[in-house]
Amino acid sequence: MFSSRKGRLCQTSALFLRQALIKRTASSRRVFDGETGLFSVPVQFKNTKGDIIQLNAVYQDTMPGGGQRATVFALHGSPGSHADFKYLVKELQANRVRMILPNFPGHGLTPNDPRLSCDNEERNQFARAVLDSVDDIRSTDLYFMGHSRGGENAVQTATLELQSGNVRGIVMLNSAGLRRHRGIEPYWKIEIFVRLLDLRVINFILHPFLYFVYNRILGLKVPTGSAAATALRTMRTFALRRILPCVEAINQHSEVKFLHVYSGDDFLIQPDISKEFAEKFNDRVDLECSSTDSADVTRSTIEAFSKGVQTVSVNFVHEGHFSQKYRAQFLIDVILALISLNSTAVESTKMSNKVHKTYKL
Description:
By secondary structure, this protein is of the alpha/beta class. The chain is built from twelve helices and ten strands. It has a single domain (29-180, 238-360), classed as Rossmann fold (3-Layer(aba) Sandwich), CATH 3.40.50.1820. The protein has helices spanning 2-27, 86-94, 120-133, 150-160, 187-199, 203-218, 225-234, 244-251, 271-278, 295-306, 323-326, 328-360; strands at 30-33, 38-46, 52-61, 70-75, 97-102, 141-147, 167-173, 257-263, 284-289, 311-316. The protein has a ten-stranded mixed β-sheet with strand order 1-2-3-5-4-6-7-8-10-9, sandwiched between helices. It is globular and about 60 Å long.
């Protein structure tokens, strides 16, 4: 009995210390750019070697004053930034849906640290550090979203948050599957470039070269050569099949809805790889859209979720890599529907409990 009381005391103390740290971190938030709703906050996390990394994370908060009915925590691709989701912000904000959009270290806004290896463990720790820094973010339902390289991190971070009981949905857009896609092939070239970057001796040549490759050849915008180098580093640290434990965890939480979106004309990720990944989710409906009009697939997606289906996987057959831009209205409508469905379910549960208690009396 003494040991169990001691254990509960330790857990209570740990929770108190964590809440105190979060409160102290949140109070140190500074305005980075008031016009765009960018904030800077000091965060602390560990790299793969166990070193403590401290830096000022820059993120966008679309409703810094609170008042939201739900929050979407969205993680950008690599290269990328909070602006990857700008096509969703305005209408979600108008419907009282708050978006928290962190900028990963070294991608242009949040400063880099040379001790970072850019693997998923570090990136997930950074994401959770930002999550902890935001006031009242866990007071409402949480939805995680990730585009491209950020998709794995959205899934992994959401899985780590499942125990909080606030996670209601995950949206994965044009993200990696369980095996290497064409965007990271041939893999040996990436490995060689990263090793050369680690030497740092010829970075004055490599950085401008990578800047040119990303901006002019790949058509992926990067602000600097250093940001291009960081983006390249993240290409060798995909989880791939190591994401499967997270998939299993999601399958076991039927209350968490999963929207998986991919494209048939994605120049980085083959559709068969995305389809293979989707097949790992148990309670699933697969949809295809060949039209430029999203009305029908939007209706089918919402109907599937409203009938209790946990996962909907949508293939936009003729779309490219940026579904959050070209299918923004589809995403907005589905996200708002999921939030409404969850609110209705919560109210129904409350009414059921109330009726049950009245009957007992």
